[in-house]
Amino acid sequence: MIRVRVIPVLLLGRGGMVKTKRFADPQYLGDPINAVRIFNEKQADELVILDIEATARGDVDFERIEDIVSEGFMPIAYGGGIRNTDQCAELFRRGVEKIVVNTALAESPQLVSDAAARFGSQSVVASIDVKPNLFRQPRAHTHGGRKATRYTPVELARTAVALGAGEIMLTAMTREGTFAGYDTALLAAVTEAVDVPVIANGGAGRIAHFVDAVVDGGCSAVAAGSLFVFAGKDAGVLITYPSEAELAEQFWSRIDGTVVH
Amino acid sequence: MEPSSTSPASLALSAARSYGAALRVRTGVRDEPPLAKAPAAPPAAARTQPPRVCAKTVMDDSDPDIVFDADGVSNWWHDYQAAKAKRPDADRQAALLDATLTEVREHGRGKPYDCVLGVSGGVDSSYVAYLARQHGLRPLLVHFDNGWNDELAVHNIEKIVKTCGYRLHTFVMDWPEFRDLQRAYFKAGVLDLEVPTDHMIFGALHQVARRHGIGYVLTGTNFATEWLLPRAWHYSKRDLVNLQAIHRTHGETPMKRLPKIGVWQQLWYQRVQRIREVDILDLVPYRKTDAMRTLEREFGWTYYGGKHYESVFTRFYQGWILPMRFGIDKRRAHLSNLILNGELTRDEALAELAQPTYDPRQQMLDKQYVAKKLGWSAAEFDEILARPRTAHAAFGTDARQRKLAELAIRTLHPLARLVRGTARK
User: Fold this and answer.
1) Which of A12, A148, B53, B175 has the fewest CB atoms within 10 Å, i.e. the most exposed one?
2) Is A246 in CB contact (< 8 Å) with chain B?
3) Are the beta carbons of A237 and B151 separated by less than 8 Å?
4) What average pLDDT does the segment A69-92 reach?
5) DSSP collapsed to 3 states, chain B
6) What's the pLDDT score for residue B46?
7) Are B168 and A238 an interchain contact pair (Cβ–Cβ within 8 Å)?
């Protein structure tokens, strides 16, 4: 049985942790330090922490990140507001294992190649947020989804790999926070175009969706936000994470035979 | 994680886990307990004489108000017998339960929910959820997230939600505001550091009930396991005057989003909105040991043994701060109550008390975590914990407000009845 990684994505904003729906309406979820502590006890594989206000604010809150990251023993990736490799070095020093770049992909590609050269590709994750444009063509977005680029997701993914990113996190903006399932067509288009691991994100509402991301989308890992911070759709805030047994039975046993990077 | 344990001796440690414990103070302005005195007992280390322990329970003179009779039996044993004699017998309990359930169902007819139920993941509140399901009630579950949840808490709540299919509403405290309030309590040097949490739970439950037009709040408060608590070991959870004075003196950020609730608002909720609290565990034969077995069987609920508490803060407060700083081992009250309830022998309780409150290594880890969460360095935290103790009352109390409220009730109640009577005609 192949053990595919299942990764909670936590968003920082409004002085704490938030959850958005389709990249809008951040709902306050409380203190991220305790959330990471609980995910740690639940033995989550990895965490992705994104500060969704950092790019606009123009800085990286190192101390806060260190306080949060030190509660988890799993690998933690951080993204938000990273502008130079010294910041990356500082993040690694404070316990972050991977850095996540999004806006930099389109605006300062040099940062991505510098970071990959200095720290290795395995520590650079390219996060690509995708939304259809007016003509229903998918386009990569930056600045927390607020700014459209002229790149298709496949183009930007290829660019990211060429720059040295070791992993791609692909988010369907219109699915994010909806519990409706991943955009598997989008995932498949990108996984076919690149040969680095792709993490599916945006829309997971139950474990069965993880299977779709791997079988139909060709992804190497799955990520989710709402699924792990709410007790269900339209329900209260509650940190959850499937047990090893649940994942084996409902996820990993159902993807046998599927090629995974 | 430790294997689940149903050792009765370990059960008592979890008594404070429930919102029930939080809501121990009775409803209504009239029933407020007398104001807590300054803690009189010195830390255990400072004693010169060995403590005197009750011959029937394990209460000792760390309760400054304890009185012993000629046989060395404390007032707690005698008071319990008296209180117990006044409790309804099994038949009367069953009749009361029946009447209450009918009332709750009646009230909820045609509405999505018939009651609000606060869930913490602890034994008492989880068992209330079980009872609600047993009797076909339709509760809105409310969980209060104050930023200190343990994995145990969220795990158990998840199990309850999944098994019962009840809707969960989480009341997430604004963490920066709540943290500031908790910091203020530490800086003030007062005894009851659980007031911020318990007060806000009380406020949150009523806010949610009112918002959804729900008339009943089911609590986990219970006579069987929580009756015994010396008044010098805690302070009123409902005294907003005291809370605000402490915050005014030692707080740094304004309190805007927290669901605080004062005397007048309590009156409003209870008398005008007619939101009632039901201590449903007092209407059934309740034993902690049996309750836990039921929960494990029905919900896949997990008990991690006596050494864990569902809130890191509560664990550290009861297991470290109270004993170290105030010479109070709250287990004495919990274990004594279980002895009185016939769930535990005195010897078992004494054996439990001979153990540390919980793993000393975990205590030190918790201390670091609490300091970090509250935004203090280890040195700053030590300095604050070494500050002189201050009585709650030194900050002022709501005693005057409560007197006024009583007067208002006495004056307005007959008037309201008159008006209502006329309206009906």
Assistant:
1) A148
2) no
3) no
4) 97
5) CCCCCCCHHHHHHHHHHCHHHHCCCCCCHHHCCCCCCCCCCCCHHHCCCCCCECCCCCCECCCCCCCECCCCCEHHHHHHHHHHHHCCCHHHHHHHHHHHHHHHHHHHCCCCCCEEEECCCCHHHHHHHHHHHHCCCCEEEEEEECCCECHHHHHHHHHHHHHHCCCEEEEECCHHHHHHHHHHHHHHCCCCCCHHHHHHHHHHHHHHHHHCCCCEEEECCCHHHHCCCCHHHCCCCCCHHHHHHHHHHHCCCCCCCCCCCCHHHHHHHHHHCCCEEEEHHHHCCCCHHHHHHHHHHHHCCCCCCCCCCCEHHHHHHHHHHHHHHHCCCCHHHHHHHHHHCCCCCHHHHHHHHHCCCCCHHHHHHHHHHHHHHHCCCHHHHHHHHCCCCCCHHHHCCCHHHHHHHHHHHHHHHHHHHHHHHHHHC
6) 52
7) yes
What is this structure's pTM?
A: 0.89
Angstrom distance (rounded) from CA B394 to CA B392? 5
Which residue among A129, A195, A212, A216 is the active-site one? A129
Instruction: Using CA coordinates, name the residue in chain B closest to A71.
Output: B369
Taking the Cβ of residue A33 and every Cβ of chain B, the question of whether any pair is shorter than 8 Å is answered with yes
Question: Does B391 reach chain A within 8 Å, measured CB to CB?
Answer: no
Count CB atoms within 10 A of the CB of residue B10.
20
- State the Cα angle at A47 between B304 and B153, rounded to 5°: 25
Identify the closest residue of chain A to B179 by CA–CA distance: A31
Say if B43 falls within a structural domain. Answer: yes
| Euclidean distance between CA atoms A187 and A199, whole angstroms | 9
Asked if the C-beta of A232 comes within 8 angstroms of chain B's C-beta atoms, the answer is: yes
Which residues of chain B fall below pLDDT 50?
Answer: 1-42, 44-45, 307-308
Would you say residue B76 lies in a domain? yes
The identity of residue A139, as a single letter, is: R
Residues 6+ apart with CB under 8 A from A191: A198, A217, A218, A219, A261
The total domain count for chain B is 1
Q: What is the CATH number of domain A5-254?
A: 3.20.20.70
User: Which of these, A33, A79, A42, lies nearest to A228 by C-alpha position?
Assistant: A42
A 3-22 residues inside an 8 A Cβ radius of B: 15-16
**In whole angstroms, what is the distance from residue A128 CA to residue A13 CA?**
20
The per-residue pLDDT for range B54-112, each reduced to its tens digit, is: 999 999 999 999 999 999 999 999 999 999 999 999 999 999 999 999 999 999 999 99
Mean pLDDT calculated for residue range A154-158: 98
Enclosing domain of residue B282 = 8-398
Token reading at B70: 């000629």
Nearest C-alpha neighbor of A223 from the set A153, A145, A169: A169
Residue listed under structure tokens 């399901």: B133
Determine, for residues A34 and B154 on separate chains, whether the beta-carbon distance falls below 8 Å: no
Q: Mean pLDDT, to the nearest integer, of A38-54?
A: 97
Type of residue found at B7: S
Angle between helices A109-119 and A153-163 (to 10 degrees): 40
Please indicate, yes or no, if residue B318 is contained in any of the structural domains.
yes
Helix (H) or strand (E) holding A55: helix A54-57
* C-alpha–C-alpha distance, residues A179 and B36, integer Å: 50
Q: Answer whether residue A138 shows pLDDT above 60.
A: yes
How many residue pairs bridge chain A and chain B with CB atoms within 8 Å of each other? 67
- Which SS3 state, helix, strand or coil, does residue A60 take? coil
Strand partners, B74: B68
Residue B379 Ramachandran class (φ > 0 left, ψ -120 to 50 alpha, else beta): alpha
DSSP A219-242: -SEEEESHHHHBSSTT--B-----
Its ipTM equals 0.91
- Let me know if residue B382 belongs to a domain: yes
